[in-house]
Structures are given as C-alpha cells and as structure tokens.
C-alpha cells in the first residue's frame, strides 16, 4: 500500500511537471510556427499551423539585418567575454580560497556583495565612465564591461568548487618543484573542468541573450549583435513581425544547440561546487 501510494504521488508530480514544461514551450511554438507565415496570415491565424512553409521570411531577414555580420559580432563578444571571466575568476577564486586571511575574506565578501547590485543602478555611471575612457563603440569596451559584471558570479562558483579540492594535491606538486603558476594551470585548473563548463554555459546564455548593455555601449551598426539587429525591425510606426520572428529563430538556434550539447555538465558542476563552501 505504501509503494502504491508513493507511485501515485510520483505519477501526479510527473504529470504536473510535464504540463508545466508544455506551458513554458508554448511561446516557442508561437515563435517557430509564425516565423513561416506571411504577415497577413500571421495576423489572422496566429495559433494555427502555416498553410505552407514560407522560407522567404528567413531569406529576407538574413539580408535585411546583415545577419552573418551580427552573428559574428555576437560570437566574438561572447567568446571573448566568457574567456576573460574564466581566466580572471578561476585564478582569483584559487587565491582567495587557499589564502584565507582577513583581506582575502573581505575581498570575497565584496565580490559577493556586487552580485546583488542591479545593473540598472550602475548603467548610467557605466556609460559616463565608458565615454570618458573612450571604450564605447568597441569590442574591447563591451568585453571589459561583461567581464567586470560577470566575474563575481563566476568567482563565487569557482570558490566553492576549489574548497572541495584537497590541498594535499598541491602540496605534492610543490614538493616536485612546481611554482605557484604551474600548480594552478597544470594541477588545479584541469580539475576545475566541471565548474568551468558550468561557468561557460551560464555566462554564454546571459551574454548572448543580453540586449540592454549592447544597446548602451554599441551604437555603431557595424558592431551590432543579433539582438540589436533584430530590434531594428521594430520602429515607432512599423513592426515587421514576419521578419522579426524569423530573425529570432535564427538567433536562438546557435545558443540553443550549444546549451543542449553542454547541459549535462551544468548540474554536475553546480553540485560539485556545493560540496564545501
């Protein structure tokens, strides 16, 4: 009787979870289905399947938005920003975790505190400082902004993971003649692979889908990301939904494939980082 009751309860939870998942998939259904419709059909039959697959929306969006250029800009910004976060946060977290003195504990607290500050509270000073330092309308400027905004969360994840690594491994390497940099890059950093993958996936999703920071920093059309290029289809008097939906699908597909390929590492890294901390 206890086993039967447990099974019924589990079945109910699974059904509710499935219904909730379907609820979250509804916007993707409307996005994908309507991207193949003409503008007139999109307005009259929004929820229905398209009468025919209209690939012209994708072709026109590809040409109008100069999509290859926008896609390459998003890729360059994402890869450069995430690489900077991984290098800076992993090294800083290793130092703060292994040298637990008063100053390092204060620095770690400062990094954690920075995580709770909303971006909207600092975006105006950020633009003013960026204009003063002349890093607006440049790749290195927006990469610097992303690295500064994302390093706190990355450091927090790395810090918990590093505390779960036995210090005896490093002591053995020092006995064998490794200097501090060799200990980190040859011994510690390879052990951080699960957390590194987690940081890469989470931060890539954030940077790829971000709209506000590129809008503030990148005013040059030649530097626009996929999100900024798609926003050009929405004007004050016209909204080209047929092209916009096709552009959104093309912008989602790369990061979606990347996430599906890397997702199995996410929970592994987060769980491993929570062992100690």
Automatic annotation (TrEMBL):
Gene3D superfamilies: MetI-like
Domain (ABC transmembrane type-1) ranges: 71-262
SUPFAM superfamilies (alphabetical): MetI-like
Ranges annotated as spanning the membrane: 12-32, 75-94, 106-127, 139-162, 183-208, 243-261
Keywords assigned: Cell membrane, Membrane, Transmembrane, Transmembrane helix, Transport
InterPro entries membership: MetI-like, MetI-like_sf
GO cellular component entries: plasma membrane
Cellular compartments annotated: Cell membrane
Keyword Iron-sulfur: no
Domain of life: Bacteria
Membrane-related topology note: Multi-pass membrane protein
Predominant place of localization: membrane
GO biological process, one term: transmembrane transport
Family membership noted in the UniProt record: Belongs to the binding-protein-dependent transport system permease family.
Descriptive protein name: Carbohydrate ABC transporter permease
Species: Paenibacillus sp. SYP-B3998
Organism phylogeny: Bacteria, Bacillati, Bacillota, Bacilli, Bacillales
């Amino acid at each position: 009787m206890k086993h039967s009751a447990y099974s019924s309860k589990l079945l109910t939870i699974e059904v509710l979870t499935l219904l909730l998942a379907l609820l979250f998939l509804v916007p993707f259904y409307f996005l994908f289905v309507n991207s193949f419709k003409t503008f007139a059909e999109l307005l009259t039959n929004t929820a229905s399947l398209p009468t025919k697959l209209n690939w012209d929306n994708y072709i026109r969006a590809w040409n109008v938005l100069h999509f290859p250029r926008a896609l390459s800009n998003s890729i360059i910004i994402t890869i450069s920003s995430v690489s900077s976060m991984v290098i800076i946060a992993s090294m800083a977290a290793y130092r703060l975790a292994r040298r637990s003195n008063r100053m390092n504990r204060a620095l770690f607290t400062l990094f954690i505190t920075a995580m709770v500050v909303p971006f909207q509270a600092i975006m105006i000073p950020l633009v003013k400082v960026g204009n003063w330092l002349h890093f607006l309308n440049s790749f290195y400027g927006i990469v610097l902004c992303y690295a500064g905004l994302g390093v706190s969360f990355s450091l927090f994840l790395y810090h918990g993971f590093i505390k779960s690594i036995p210090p005896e491994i490093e002591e053995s390497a020092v006995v064998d003649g490794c200097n501090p940099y060799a200990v980190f890059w040859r011994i510690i950093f390879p052990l951080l692979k699960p957390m590194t993958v987690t940081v890469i996936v989470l931060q890539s999703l954030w940077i790829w889908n971000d709209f506000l920071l590129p809008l503030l920093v990148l005013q040059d059309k030649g530097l626009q990301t996929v999100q900024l290029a798609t926003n050009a289809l929405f004007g004050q008097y016209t909204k080209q939904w047929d092209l916009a939906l096709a552009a959104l699908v093309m912008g989602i597909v790369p990061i979606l494939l990347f996430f599906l390929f890397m997702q199995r590492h996410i929970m592994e890294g987060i769980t491993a980082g929570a062992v100690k901390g």
